Amino acid sequence: MVDWHSQLVQQQCFEAIIILVWLSVGSVVREQINTAYFDWQIIAGRRERKWAQAVYLLAKVSWWVYIALVVVLVYTFNEVDCNHIM
């Protein structure tokens, strides 16, 4: 059986989570780069604007907020007290 309270096991789990987080961040950044030209055409007015594109651009902005929060939480040096935050 795995001893989930072992420091070694917890460190291995943490490292695995960090790898998954960076894979997630990488896929989001790649998608943002691939669609940047299309987004710029909407913002610059070269494409006809529709109401659904406002939702699309809001989702794109929320992805960048997600990326920023993930990077901050991955690189935090102090333990996050979730009970105090909520």
TrEMBL record:
It comes from the Eukaryota. This is Uncharacterized protein.
